[in-house]
Amino acid sequence: SVPQVPWQYSLSVPADIGPQRMFRTSAASAGLRAAEFDAKSVTLDVIFAVRLAFADVALAESVREITRADRVLYTRILAADSARLAAGDIPVREVTKAEVELVRADAALARADAVVHQARIALTQVLGRAAPDTAIPTSGIPAYRHVVIPDSILAAAAQRPDAHAAASHVEQSQIGRAHV
Fold first, then answer.
1. 65-78 burial, b for 16+ CB within 10 Å, e for fewer?
2. Which of 29, 90, 147, 177 could form a disulfide with 94, with the two C-beta atoms 3.0–4.6 Å apart?
3. Are 150 and 159 in contact (CB under 8 A)?
4. pLDDT tens profile 114-165
5. How many CB atoms are closer than 10 A to CB 37?
């Protein structure tokens, strides 16, 4: 049977107007701001982690160079003490002490090499490389950009992306809780 009046069949779609739409859009925009601040925070965290890993590599290499210089020094001391022993100027225990110090220097150099290796692997991991590369070039110093710090600690804290993200999450939660 065919309907006699055209309005007998209708389609009802809720109109998205009024305060509910405003609450949904404000919550969505607060969520978007929170996500943007989270992304900025993660970017800054990654940059900091890379710079820290680079500094760790530079420090480990410096310590290794100092340790290498110490080993050379102890090698020279042992050679000098051996010559003095041959001349009869010192007892055998002095040469034995020099040998022990040389062995300690060798062990310290091996530890320093391992620390450099570990720091380079950590750097490649922070950089996001698929395979660790301990031969990655790390000469120089990462670029330093001067940061102007505001007088107030609270003002400085308010500039942090993670603080913005946290405030946006709180705002989003308050909006969602108040209008649910």
1. eebeebbeebeebb
2. 90
3. yes
4. 999 999 999 888 887 778 777 777 776 656 566 555 555 545 555 667 667 7
5. 20
